[in-house]
Design brief:
Elements lengths: L1 H10 L5 E13 L2 E2 L2 E2 L3 E14 L2 E7 L4 H18 L21
Antiparallel strand pairs: 1-4, 2-3, 4-5
């Protein structure tokens, strides 16, 4: 997780606001079908949601590729959507104070 924080700091664009939310979830599923126990299923969901607010526009993009190139591609998409939505949205996101709170959940 620390590597992702460092990587995000390195690639963060010069915009009004930018955030990274990382999800790393593991779950197990136990299913009984017609009174027959099915094989145990283990699922791992891992990815990131990047949000960009710039010039009054808002854009976001998700990726499961947590490499430098994957995060850069998602940032580019989010920035593109922020640029397209600037001046066209009902809400001017540049007027909303953004939080700088950092947190984690386990």
């Amino acid at each position: 997780m620390e590597n992702l924080k460092d990587l995000f700091r390195q690639i963060m664009p010069a915009v009004d606001f930018c955030s990274l939310r990382v999800v790393d979830e593991r779950s197990e599923e136990l299913v009984v079908r017609q009174n027959i126990l099915q094989p145990l299923t283990t699922v791992r969901n891992r990815g990131a949601m990047l949000t960009v607010i710039h010039g009054g526009g808002y854009g976001y993009a998700a990726t499961s590729d947590l490499s430098r190139s994957g995060l850069l591609a998602a940032l580019e998409r989010a920035g593109h959507w922020a640029k397209l939505s600037a001046g066209r949205s009902v809400v001017d996101y540049s007027k909303i104070a953004q939080s700088s709170i950092r947190d984690s959940y386990a």
